[in-house]
Amino acid sequence: MEVVPVTSPLFWSALFRAECMLTLNISAGLITGEIILSLGIVDLIFAPIVPFLSRHGIHRTIAGAMLVALGSARSGAAMIAGSFAEGGISKEEATYGTLSLAFPGYLRRWVGTAAMAFGIAGIAGLIYAVILVARSAVRFAWVVFLLARRGSAGDLSAAKAPDAGNELKQSPRARRRRLFATICRSLPWAWLFFALAYAAMPFVERAFTDYVALWGLHAFLPPDGWAVAASALAHVMAALSSARAALADGDLSVPQAVLALLVGNMVGTVTRTMRQNVGYWMGIFPKELVPGLLRWHLTTMFSLEIATIFMAWAIGAMMNG
Predict the structure, then answer these.
(1) pLDDT per residue over 240-288, tens digit each?
(2) Which of 91, 167, 205, 249 is 20 to 30 Å from 146 at the Cα level?
(3) What letters, b where the CB count within 10 A reaches 16 and e where it falls short, cover 271-303?
(4) In this structure, what DSSP letter does residue 151 have?
(5) 9-40: string of b/e by CB count within 10 Å (b at 16+)?
(6) Could you tell me which of 112, 78, 117, 113 has the C-alpha nearest to residue 98?
(7) Backbone dihedral region of 151: left (phi > 0), alpha (psi from -120 to 50 degrees) or beta?
C-alpha cells in the first residue's frame, strides 16, 4: 500500500469518501434494526416457537437478530443492543448473540466473495473462500453453543412469551430519541477508529514485512507468499491479485497460495476489527460490555484462524512431500 502523507489532499479526500460510506452503513443499520423492533416483526415471527427457543436458552430477540443479520449484521446488533439496554437479555446473551451474527451476515456476501475470489485467483481463491465460510460456520456453532448454555430464555414461560422484553413498551418519541442518541454516540467512535486504522495501514504493512524477515519466517512460507499476506493488510482484492500473479509466474503452488491468503486474513484481523467493529460496538453497547465482547471476538477469531492456517500448512507439506 502506497504511503500517502497525511498532509496530502489525496489522503483526506480518500478518507472522507470512506468515512461517508461508513456513516451511511452504520446509520442504515441502526435505523433498520429500530424499525424492525418497533413493528414487532420479531414477535410475529418467533412467538409461535418461543417455547422451543426457551428450552434451548436462546432469546427470541437474538433469534430474530440472526435472521435480520442475513440482510444486515449491523441491524441485528442494533436489535440486540436495544434489548440489552431495556433489560430483556443478559450480558452473556448480548455478547454471544452479537458474535453469532457474523455468520448469517457473511452468508449474504459469500456467493459474491467466492465468485470474486475464483475469478481473480482461480482454484486457490475458491478454496480460500470455502475455508472462510466453513470457518465462519464453526465459529457460529461455537458461540451458539455458548449462547444456549448461558442463555436465560429458558426461564421465560410460554405465557409470558408474547409480552417478553420491554423494547416495544416505549413511546415512538422515546424510541426516536434513543435512536438519535445511539447514532450520535456510535458515529464519532466509528469515525475515530476507522481513521486510525486507515492512517496506520501503510506503516503496519511495512512493519509486518520487516518482522517476517527478522524472525526468519520464510521457512514457513516463501517470500512471494509473505508478499501476498502483506498485501491483505490493504484489501482482500490486493491479496487475491498478488496470489494470481504469483501462481501465474510459478512462484507459488496452489496450497502455498491458499496458505498465504489465510495468513493475510489472520494478520488483518485486528485492523478489520478496529475499522468494522470496535467503534460501532462502543456506540451501541454500554462500556462495561465492550471489553468482554472484544475479547471473545478476538479469541474465537484467532483460535480458528490459527487452526485453519496450520491445517492448510500440514496439507500443503504432505502434498509437497
Answers:
(1) 888 888 888 788 899 999 999 999 899 888 878 877 788 778 888 888 8
(2) 167
(3) bebbbbbbbbbbbbbeeebbeebbebbeebbee
(4) -
(5) eeeeeebeeebeebbeebeebbebbbebbbee
(6) 78
(7) beta
